[in-house]
# Entry
Amino acid sequence: MSIELTRRDEFAVIRIDRAAALNALNYEMLRAIGRALDQVESSDARAVFFIGAGEKAFCAGADIGELLGRSIPDEYAGTRLGQEIYSRIESFPLPSVAIVNGYALGGGCELALACTFRLGTAAARFGLPEVKLGLVPGYGGTQRLPRLVGMGIALEMLMTGRMVPAEEALRIGLLNRIVEGDPLAAAIQYARAFSGHGLLALRLVRDAALRGRDTSLREGLRIEADLTTISMRSDDGREGARAFLEKRAAIFKDR
Ligand code: DAK
# Structure
């Protein structure tokens, strides 16, 4: 099995399990990630983690062997498949955390970019080396990387294809945190900082930030007003205010 879905406490864990090829993703694995997301969506998980099998890689990118000998319509369909899966992760009902335990290259780096948060071990290495293959990143890298780290650094990474080590990734905002010890245990501890909040508020606040990022301040403020209003009218919004006034812990129902 090359995509494995398991559960650790209240969290779903999607493991890319193809260590012999540094967890390179072929199209069937992309589709399997989609199926795993279907299962996670209908579960009671509070967040979804992505991690790579083995000690060496999170994911070394698209399976290079699969990129040859395909027709243009097939290439286009392949790119759209990856983009759609990654966009689904970005706007998924649950927060997502990439646990980058080694190389995150090409499509692997793009997977991490689509997640809400990125944690890295000291071995984490990020890169978009497609240009070295005469290619353009096809799963969102040219779009999400500049939005995350700024255009200057993104263009440097995109046009040199160089790998960015963990400390630098932390400094430029590509990593949220460098973790030590068991990366999954560290991710659980990290995610507990938000996993007790209502999923509706988490989703709305993330969507306000992400949708606002792609528009003007004026339009972004309108999006914020819409989503704030939804949160205020939600059961969780009412419960949060009531619990505060009654000096007790809120009991959220994610709606
Ligand atoms: N695909 C397939 N196999 C890979 C792979 C990959 N991306 N990366 C590594 N492997 C395989 C190696 O071939 C090797 O297999 P065996 O020879 O043992 O059978 C095994 O994993 C171990 O790799 P190495 O022997 O190379 O290990 P090293 O420690 O020496 O080097 C490395 C590690 C990460 C520096 C090196 O493996 C490497 O440079 N890998 C390639 C990284 C890369 O270029 N990734 C970006 C892939 S391009 C599009 C769709 C998508 C995209 C573009 C267009 N369309 C549909 C139009 C995006 C493309 C990409 O992601």
The chain has ten helices and ten strands.
